[in-house]
Request: fold
Amino acid sequence: MALRTLVDVDTLAAHLDDPRWVVLDCRFELTRPTWGEEGFAAGHIPGAQYAHLDRDLAATQTASSGRHPLPEPEAFAALARRWGINDDTQIVVHDQASGVYAARAWWLFRWLGHESVAVLRGGLAAWTASTRKLTVETTTRAAGNFVARPQENWVVTVDDVLDSVESHRLHVVDGRGADRFAGQNETMDPVAGHVPGAVNHPFASNFAADGTWLPETELRARWEKTLQGRPANEVVTMCGSGVSACLNLLALETLGIQGARLYTGSWSEWVRDPSRPVATGASAS
Reply:
C-alpha cells in the first residue's frame, strides 16, 4: 500500500533493499546552506540520495520572488528521474529531525502528481537513535520515468492573498514562530510582522516537547482551533519562504484534512513590495 504522509524507521529499514523505494536526504540549515550536504557526505542512510533545498527543491530567487520559489515542474521532474524515481516509486524523504525541510520535498512531489511519498518520522535522528547504520557510499540509480502533472489549484499567488486582506475569502495560516509573526524578532526578512488577518500556527506546534509528532487527538484539537471552522479549500498556509508551511500541510494531511493550499512566495515575497499591508501583534483570538 502506498505511504502518503509519514513512515516509521522500522518500515523504512525493511525496504532498504527494495528497488521500488527511493530515499531522499533533505537535511538543511538556512544559515549554513552547505551543512546538510556535508553531513550527507559524512554519513547517510544506505541508498539515500541528497536533495538540496536551495538547488533542488527551489528555483533561483529573483528580485520579486520569495527566497524559495517553486522549481519549474519539468526541471524538477527531470531531477526526480535522475534520482531513479518512477511514477509508481515509493519515495521516503527525511531531514535531520522534524521534517520541516523534508516536507518541502513531500509537497513538491504531491503537487506534481506523485502520490506515494512519505516523510520519515523523526528523520535521521530517529534512524541513528535506533542504532541502524549509516554509510558514506554514494548511490546511482537507473533513470526513472516520473512525469510531472502539476496540480494548479494547490497554490495561491500574492495577488490572491492581497485580495483576501479585504475580502477574507481565504483563511491564511502562517507557520513561522510566534515572535516573528508578531513582528518582535525578525531575523530573516527586512520587514517584521504578518499579513493582516492571518493566524499563527508555528510548525513546531505540531510536535511534543521531545520533538515527536503529537498524538492525533491533540494535533487535531490544535488545528481545529487554528482553522476556526473554515473549510480546507479556503485555507492557505504560508511561512517565511514556503518551506515550513509545507510541514503544516503535511500535518493537515495526516488528519485527513485535504484541500488546503500553499502561498508559495510567503512572507519573503510579501514584503518585497512596500505597498502591501503589514500587521503586528499576536493572532486574533
About this structure: The chain has a mean pLDDT of 97. Residues 6-129 form a domain with the Oxidized Rhodanese; domain 1 fold (CATH 3.40.250.10). The longest helix spans residues 100-111. The chain has two domains: 6-129, 152-270.
